[in-house]
Design brief:
Blueprint (H helix, E strand, L loop, with lengths): L12 E2 L2 E2 L38 E12 L3 E13 L8 E16 L2 E15 L10 H6 L40 H7 L1 E20 L2 E20 L10 E25 L2 E26 L10 E4 L3 E20 L3 E12 L8 E11 L2 H4 L6 E15 L10 E2 L15 E2 L2 E2 L2 E2 L2 E2 L7 E14 L4 E20 L8 E24 L3 E18 L4 H4 L8 H4 L9 E5 L7 E4 L6 E7 L8 E2 L2 E2 H5 L7 E2 L8 E8 L6 E11 L2 E11 L2 E4 H9 L11 E2 L10 H6 L3 E2 L7 E2 L2 H4 L13 E3 L2 E13 L2 H4 L6 E15 L20 E2 L8 E9 L1
Length: about 800
């Protein structure tokens, strides 16, 4: 596991002067960053980046059985997973138990019924992460190096001690600690969830005629999810602790009826036609209640809180009615054709757009059967092309103006507000205005490629090119506050995705007891937002239209950009015309090539005359200045991805490995910038050193292009003393984005495994078993990257596109060694 480097030389304070806090109930309310004096020799220091982690453990056991006769089949499996994560203690855990059954029975020779069902029960625990005052990453990495966080309770009072409130008195139950001690959060807070999921289907297959088959499936999926997030009595940002209790209920019902007819007009042609109906209903209910201020330290129950918000009790229901048909044709076992059409009605569609059509077709030609190419050179070849249209459903209830009673808060749990005053309840208008004309998003994609098998099957090669165009993409577009709303969901967007995909495999050795296979894959995607709609003045020709040329990186005309997600401190992501989906917008240092003139009294235009684009302007102080104009900066999407795999079989021993690579794409290292501000990052030990921008300024990969690239201006070549002013100002989270925008390129050894299957007399003695499979796997064993943070694959927003590429006190991918045993009877 990688760790963030921390400095272990300087203590809490500012400008080299310590901030004393030795008395009972003393609070470090200001100058609480680690910009104090150097710690005296012999001072005990702690590595706060490492001490919160340990080696996790996981046990996963499954037993399955299957059987039947000529009319009846069944399959039954049961499993259990018990996992303890890699944060110290037992708070991060997962217990999962599953049961699965499949069965079928032929009532008649032409009529078969079947059923399948599964039950999954889970219970898990976790910890707050990201930029949260109660999160373990933020609390750990902002602490001064000489603070003993392991002693999270005062030895005398037994109360929560943090570095900003290190000596709690006997009555300091609710005093704000500023930031939680990470070990207090680990051992005292509670974040748990329990789920119970049932899903399955019943089905029937009837063949009334030799050429006609009818299939019916009725499926259901029900899930209940009960979560509790409790902050103990002395947690930061609360007044005596708080808790939130969520209960989620999901239910999906799905009906599919399909009739398929098959004909063979001649020995050279086969054809089929399928028609069907699909009915689907999705129901979701959420109940959410927040309680504040504990009556007693435990238990963490709503009844143990002094005040509770009115519950949020919301339900959503979506219904889909679809009809579809598909035709396929096989000519000479060489030419394969298909055409399809689907028509959907959806309860989320606008009043004037109740139904939508989705056509599609494909064609493939196995040309080797017609060209008679020797199999020693090419034994299989297929060219293919396909076109299809699909839809993305608009948000539910986006057609209406609604009122809500939801409580709201910022990142501080103590800021919770509810629309109730003196016992009189209230409602407020949703910030999003309804749109009765909303339509489904539509995606049209053309794909073509070919597949080859070469040299008697020793090598495979596949190439695919695709061009996808999305239109009527739903975005929340800003509205003037005078309307009483802040946004409206409009079918305003259009974007494209164009790319290539290549897969290949080579088998140089294929002997009975020795074989080698090497595989590879490569992919590239180019995404671009092409439209976000237009305002009336643009449609009337009064204002330029939002084209890539008119918008530029600054978004100079209306409807050039719209926000799609935000993180703390303004690190928002945007859809911007002419740029990939999910770019960041931010100020930057003044640089050449942007048409700048006078910036903060500095004649940047004159200094940049004849200088290279991107050159950094330096004021007379030798420091860069900030250009206040926001621009599109950075792109989280990679230039290309690829992978290599290898599989070697030697006398029953199978060895495999997979190497994964991502080239390009940006990541915002918010963790490093925040630690710079707090003076806890290893880099801040450079404080007091003299550097020169453009020559030897502290930087990491892509930031070096900015901070140590070409420079202009009166401060060119002027040395500066690097210290608190830089790290808490331009170099911190509040400074230009380019100080923390890094290249996310990496190569990762995803997995290496070795396995063997035993089939000897020893195995037969194990209860009559016929085979024992033994396998050892190592996952995420090695990472090669120039990224300075924990992991270039981390995302504060998880898998959501809206906040990709933001690393903010997250956790890295774990490195694992897995031992597996499978016994076959």
């Amino acid at each position: 596991m990688r760790f963030v480097p921390v400095q272990q030389t300087y203590g809490v304070g500012s400008n080299g002067i310590t901030t004393p806090c030795v008395g009972t109930n003393c609070i470090i309310s200001s100058a609480f960053f680690s910009w104090g004096p150097a710690l005296p020799a012999g001072t005990t220091v702690y590595n706060h980046a490492r001490e919160i982690f340990e080696t996790g453990k996981s046990w996963d056991n499954t037993v399955s059985m299957s059987g039947g006769n000529e009319r009846t089949t069944f399959y039954l499996s049961m499993g259990g997973l018990n996992q303890n994560g890699f944060v110290v203690g037992d708070a991060d855990f997962l217990h999962r138990y599953t049961v699965r059954f499949n069965g079928s029975h032929s009532l008649l020779d032409n009529f078969t019924i079947g059923a399948s069902g599964s039950y999954v029960q889970t219970k898990g625990g976790g910890l707050d992460r990201g930029n949260s005052t109660n999160g373990i990453g933020l609390g750990a990495l902002r602490q001064p190096p000489d603070f003993n966080a392991l002693q999270y309770l005062d030895p005398v009072t037994g109360l929560h001690r943090s570095w900003r409130f290190p000596n709690p008195g006997p009555t300091a139950f609710t005093t704000n600690r500023g930031f939680d001690n990470p070990f207090y959060a680990i051992n005292q807070d509670l974040l748990t969830g329990e789920t119970g999921r049932y899903y399955g289907n019943v089905n029937a297959n009837w063949t009334p005629l030799s050429w006609l088959q009818v299939n019916y499936t009725l499926g259901g999926d029900y899930n209940s999810d009960d979560r509790t997030y409790a902050l103990a009595r002395s947690s930061a940002g609360t007044t005596g602790g708080s808790m939130e209790r969520w209960q989620f209920y999901d239910r999906i019902l799905d009906h599919n009826l399909v009739a398929t007819g098959r004909w063979q007009p001649s020995t050279k042609m086969e054809t089929s036609l399928s028609i069907g109906q699909n009915l689907n209903e999705t129901f979701f209910r959420q109940i959410d209640v927040t309680g504040q201020t504990w009556i007693a330290p435990t238990p963490f129950k709503l009844a143990n809180t002094t005040t509770r918000t009115p519950p949020t009790d919301s339900e959503t229901r979506r219904r889909i009615e679809g009809y579809f048909a598909q035709w396929t044709g096989d000519i000479l076992d060489q030419l394969f054709l298909s055409a399809r059409i689907r028509n959907d009605g959806n309860s989320a569609f606008g009043v004037g757009e109740q139904r939508a059509w989705y056509p599609g077709w494909s064609a493939a030609w196995s040309f080797t059967k017609a060209m008679h190419i020797p199999e020693s050179l090419l034994n299989f070849g297929k060219a293919r092309i396909a076109y299809g249209e699909s839809g993305q459903q608009p948000p539910l209830y986006a057609t209406q103006d609604i009122f809500v009673t939801t409580a709201f808060a910022d990142f501080n749990p103590g800021s919770l507000q509810v629309p109730t005053l003196n016992g009189i309840g209230g409602q407020y208008a949703s910030a999003a205005r309804g749109n009765p004309d909303i339509r489904p998003e539509r995606v049209k994609e053309l794909e073509q490629g070919f597949d080859l098998s070469l040299f008697n099957g020793r090598s495979d090669f596949s190439l695919t090119h695709y061009n996808s165009r999305s239109s009527d993409v739903v975005f929340g577009v800003s509205l003037p506050p005078s309307t009483g709303y802040t946004s409206v969901n409009l079918n305003a967007g259009a974007l494209t995705n164009k790319g290539w995909e290549i897969t290949t495999a080579f088998r140089p050795i294929t002997r009975e007891n020795f074989s080698v296979e090497i595989g590879g894959n490569w992919a590239r995607n180019r995404n671009m937002v092409t439209s976000l709609g237009a305002i009336d003045a643009q449609l009337q020709g009064l204002v330029p239209m939002p084209t890539p040329e008119n918008c530029g990186p600054e978004a100079k005309v209306p409807r050039c950009t719209t926000g799609i997600g935000s993180s703390f401190s303004g690190q928002a992501t945007f859809a911007q015309v002419g740029y990939p989906f999910g770019v960041w917008r931010s100020t930057d240092f003044a640089r050449c090539g942007r048409g700048l003139t006078i910036v903060s009294g500095n004649d940047v235009g004159a200094a940049c005359a004849g200088q290279p684009d991107g050159a950094l302007y330096l004021a007379a102080t030798g420091l860069p200045i900030t250009d206040p104009t926001e621009r599109a900066v950075g792109n989280p999407w990679p230039d290309w991805t690829g992978g290599l795999s290898a599989n070697v079989m030697v006398k029953g021993v199978e060895i495999s490995a997979f190497l994964d690579h991502r080239s390009g794409g940006d990541i915002l290292n918010m963790t490093r910038s925040s630690m710079y501000q707090y003076g806890t990052h290893k880099d801040t030990e450079i404080r007091g050193s003299t550097v020169t921008f453009g020559q030897n300024m502290l930087c990491h990969n892509k930031t070096c292009d900015v901070l140590n690239g070409p420079t202009v201006g009166p401060g060119k070549g002027v040395p500066v003393v690097l210290g608190e002013a830089w790290f808490t100002g331009p170099g911190s989270t509040g400074g230009p984005i380019t100080t923390r925008l890094e290249d996310a390129t990496f190569t990762r050894l995803r997995e290496v495994s070795i396995g063997y299957s035993f089939r000897n007399a020893f195995v037969e003695k194990l209860g009559g078993s016929r085979q024992l499979d033994v396998k050892v796997s190592g996952r995420n064993l090695r990472l090669w990257t120039k990224y300075s943070g924990l992991d270039p694959e981390t995302n504060i927003g998880g898998a959501a596109n809206a906040n990709r590429g933001i690393d903010w006190f997250g956790t890295p991918l774990d490195r694992a060694v897995v031992f597996s045993f499978a016994l076959h009877h």
